[in-house]
Amino acid sequence: MHGMPRIGEGRSLKKALERFWAGRIPAEELQRTAAEIRHLNWKAMADAGIDFVPSNDFSLYDHVLDAAVMVGAIPERFRTEAGPIDLDRYFAMARGGAIDGHSAAPFELTKWFDTNYHHLVPEIEASTPFVPDTSKLRGEHTEAAALGIVTTPVLVGPLTLLLRSTGSSNRYALGRLDALVDAYGQVLAELHREGVPWVRLDEPVLVEDRDAKEVQALRNAYRQLAERSDRPSLVVSTYFGSVGSALPILADLPVEAVGLDFCRGAEQLGLLQSAGGLGDKVLMAGVVDGRNVWANDLDASLALLDQLADVAAEVVVSTSCSLMHVPVSLRAESNLSDEVLPWLAFAEEKLAELATLAKGFGLGRVVVAEELDTNRMVRRARLRSPRVVDATVRQRVAGLGNSDPRRSTRSEVRAAAQQVRLSLPPLPTTTIGSFPQTADLRSARAAWQTNHIDDVAYHASLCAEVDRVVRIQEEVGLDVLVHGEPERDDMVRYFADQLAGFVLPVEGWVQSYGSRCVRPPVLVGDVSRPRAMTVEWARYAQSGTSKPVKGMLTGPVTMLRWSFVRDDQTESETAVQLALAIRDELVDLQSAGIAIIQVDEPGLREGLPLRTAERADYLAWATRAFRVVTEPANSETQVHTHMCYAQLGDIMDALGELDVDVVSLEAARSGMALAADLKAADYQGGVGPGVYDVHTPGIPTIASIEVLLRRAVEALGSDRVWVNPDCGLKTRQYDQVVPALEHMVAAARKLRAELETD
């Protein structure tokens, strides 16, 4: 299998990391917590009968960063002459910080393929030296061996590491592969000397479109590695989709085993049959879904395994990918009904599914007859549940037909009407939406959820926080305000809690990046909005200021992508249901007098299919779902959206299809490169390219913000540029937020004054 969640039960890693960063615990205590998580994971897998127990799947921050460290691809600003980097430098690469008395910018952050996990982007340039460091790999293998468990170390494969790095688009990128493969060869040789029997190399880039040069580079790389006599047996594994035309190349690689995802790549069975199978290779068959939480259809999986037995020398039952994308266990769940609970499987339950499938496949159905009967009964009950289908919702969706919803006026007409209503200055300043969730606020929420304070007291605490946030923004001098979202613990979960069709696991945490964890809701049935969700808070905040306050909504595609989605209907059908529910909220906000409504869609780019041929269809239904929400907005209502931490170059055309008035985007870590991309794409709408990185703990200077803002104005023009951070402020502290916003406003006012004198 591919690995377990690394956050630990009760998010123990998150808590230890944040205490360490705050200086409240020493490194030794952080490492003890990490070791405890690894030991529990290894034991759980071993107890489930897993033959290939992975190691090195654990990370203190990010497995892609770990891969860069493993091959010594350390940028100059983080290097040390003292040997391997220490924790301070490791975390500085992830979060930024002071190194040798100088401020060092962190690696960029982007999505791991089409998941909601964010990985750090290694910096591999033409001159980057590769100096392997196997201490983590060898250490974890030895650590597991002391527990009596022989593990299979897991490495990000060399082609994937190279193509997920910043140099991957440059002309020399593949030219670095030979040197990188040589470093991997040294790593494999060291593991071989340690007695490691198997190593798995993950190459998920094979499920994307790859050109002939890249495919040839893959072939050459693995021939070079396989020719070594001083290496363990090798598994080359892919996931998140089908390898398509690359399957014959993969089957021909001189390695001992191949891993394929049959959950998101069901067509791979036919490809294997057409290619004549894998010959004498072992097939690691990913038949248990590592990215969703529904209980496995055991009968279907066993039937698939029977067919796969004809195309490989040996079949090993596996997860489709790492279980880091699902929560740890259902054991701690107290918020799920007895009806819904059996429908689901988190990481621990998926281990049990693997064990059942392995027994049924290897020893026959009769050995697992009881488990199969229970599984069939649960699946039938889910299909028949009244939670699943709502006839009213289905009729409303049908009423849309094949219509193409659009706002009734052109963007230039809207812009004129909105300026009359809002009277905003050039380079208007605002934030993305959320403000810090303080300890007092979290304590009040916890007290309310456990009935230690009543609704009235909790409501009063929220009102006081909204008052505080509005006052701070006015004192800072922002032009467009937000209410700060103190009532929301999560931008998706908050809405899911108020929409019919969702259930919300209490302990369903998964890692987003570093110490950042989220609890995705689970979409179990048709979606509708029983009552207004945000109007009260928007109206309350607006009553306390003469400046416009944005209404804040989460868009339908993000609700879809950041939830565990239904597997019994298409995502496009679910998206329309979500869109109609959110549309009702937009109509009510507009009726309440809210002049600016932001419908956030950071998940839209994330959902882009990995194969180019599938993208047009996805973008068509995704942008249509967004327009279903915003169609009722009148000319005077300014509609914003926000996207962050994703490569947006390949959806530039789709931004226009959203038909919004202003889009805010992450741009700080990339040095405002996005502004040039928008100019090249001839995007005509208003743009708020983030002028500072909220995920870096330092406070940006006025000068640094000014540099980025000037680049934006030069590329896009002052009449279209908004000034804002690159994401919400929820994860920061007020002593960081207030001076950062003051600096942002100061930079905007400086440029504004220059414009007035031109």
Overview of this structure, please?
The chain is of the alpha/beta class and 758 residues long. The chain has a domain at 428-565 and 575-603 and 625-757: TIM Barrel, CATH 3.20.20. The protein contains 27 helices and 20 strands. A seven-stranded parallel beta sheet has the order 1-6-7-8-9-10-11. A five-stranded parallel beta sheet has the order 16-17-18-19-20. A two-stranded antiparallel ribbon has the order 2-3. Helix 11 (298-308) crosses helix 12, helix 14 (391-400) crosses helix 21 (571-591) and helix 25 (673-680) packs parallel to helix 26 (702-716). The mean pLDDT is 94.
Compose a concise summary of this entry.
The chain has 758 residues and is α/β, with parallel strands linked by helices.
Report the portion of residues in β strands: 5-15%
- Give the terminus-to-terminus CA distance: 64 Å
Outline the biggest β-sheet: 7 strands, parallel
Number of strands: 20
Helix fraction, binned, reads: 40-55%
Radius of gyration: 26 Å
> Can you tell me the overall shape?
globular
